[in-house]
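Exercise 7 asks you to align residues with tokens for two separate proteins.
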Amino acid sequence: MRELGAIEQRIKDDSTAALKAGDKPLREALSSFVAALKKERIDSRKEPTEADELTVLKRERKRRAEAIALYDEAGRKDLADQERYEEGLLKSYMPEELGDAELEALVDEGVAATDAVTPKDMGKVMGWLKPKVAGRADGKKLSGMVREKLEG
């Protein structure tokens, strides 16, 4: 049996506590998160890193945000509220997002560390940055900052 990642274990423990407390909505939400993490762990066939787990949680959070928009548009407040609840739960298992100043400093450090000078070097910089910002920054925002730094 493969070892659970730290985040997956924490969610599983919280799910067990919710079951014992009789909190069915919380238990069901947490169980869906555990299922997504387990699927990723099985599909990847490797021990999960915290970055891997955060990637899964971020993907699940994005799915919830898209569902909220669709349900609001369709007038299904009940379903939108459930998705908001789950999105809030996911947020509680994720680290705080990095601020613009922190991201800017990391981008500068990445550009210097990889000796990047042109936009063609963007892949090197992003490869250097990904593990350092795992789950704490939006990929589009980060790549935009790197592109801007290398073009300007």
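Second protein for Exercise 7:
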Amino acid sequence: MRWLFNLSFRHKIPLWTSFLISFSIFVVGAALMTRAYEDMKRAVVISADNLGHTLANTVAPTLLHDDVWRAFEIVRSPIRGESARTPVQVDAVVVLGRESKVFVSSHPDTLPMLSEAAALGADWRRLSERLSTPGDEKWPLVLEPEDSSYLYLVLPITDKDAHLGHLVLRYAKSVFHPWFIDTLWQGLGLGLLVLAVLIPINWYWGSRMATPLVDLAQRMGMMLEKVPEPLPPDMYPYDDELGQLFQAYDRMVLALRDKAALESEVVRSERLAAIGQLTAGIAHEINNPLAGLITVIDTLKLHRDLDPRVLRSLELIDRGLMQIRDTVAALLVQTKVQARPLNQHDLEDIHTLIQPEIGKRRIRLDWSATMPVELPAPASLVRQILINLLLNAVQAARDGGHVSLWLGRKDDSESCLSIVVRNDGALLGAEQLAHLFEPFASTRAGGHGLGLWVTYQIVTQLDGHIDARNVGGQVEFVVNLPLGDTPCSTASA
């Protein structure tokens, strides 16, 4: 039986309600059937009382004169066809004398004259015992013996207050059956009609109430794994107790989301603080030898007899060292870094620096960079952004795959520089996209997850915007940077 209580509310509520409706209709129907039976019996008693008084008054003189034949004609008259005046046909009429002997009966073959009433059967024996017991009887006396198929109505026969005997009318209970069956069919039809109307309404409202409860239980079961979604507002748009429960659940979900966002921000802040302390220490150790290296390069460049190839290499090293210095400064100082403008030499340096990695992976590189001689953007920081994004794309692309770079003014705007880097490696999932620019959130095995975080920090320092997405089966990174002090639309294209 326990399994019935373990059913889902979407089944349990309609089933229990349907059972209660059916049970209620059955109880009401049984009560109506009982009432109908009593009403039928009362109608028979009233009809029998009228007939009995008529017969008692008519048969009394025959008892006084001992006129058996006349009495027989009188008691036989209702049996021969006068039933039109009564709702049902009387089964037998018997006149009992004062000694409870049969004076005359309508059926002398089964109820012979001068027989003792007690000898005619169990019903007559109970009737005889009742009549022989003194008491204040209310006439007519109605007897319905147990396990009997007959109903008896008894009236006294008197003449001028002299008691002469009793008139007994016997009715077969089977006369009730047509009335009872007709009433039963009417009640059954009405009950089925009520069920046909109420049960579909019950199933609709039961499902209407249970479906949100089932959905609520499923969502609450997921709370240990993640913060669930709020319930749809049109699922149960009422303000009763269930509606208040669902509204409380939605408020709880919103509070949990705010709590999760706050916890995530706290964790992120703690990470950034730890990384900031670590970066500050590393920057201090980097800046000391870096200053010496920059001094050495500057000293070497003062020699006029240097080979052009050596001088070109020194300039490449010098720009690389300046990039390291500016990148470290951008990570440590929450202000814009003042640096030289971006030029074609910087793009050539980047193209040269990534060639070994491209050749090792047999990557096809599509390079499209449209720009004037110089752009008012900090060269070192833009170089770092390009190197990080290109190396990340090369490492993410499949062997023999494809990487592309597009650099130019966004929508031909004079105030916005746009960088688009694509690769044909594995697409990023929703969880990866959500944490892509967080420290230590690497998308590949063996990665430390700091390259994209450093890129994000630099773009933020420059008041720009960086975004990542899956486009046409490829992974695309878009960076929009303002040129100089002129603001631009930093939303990704």
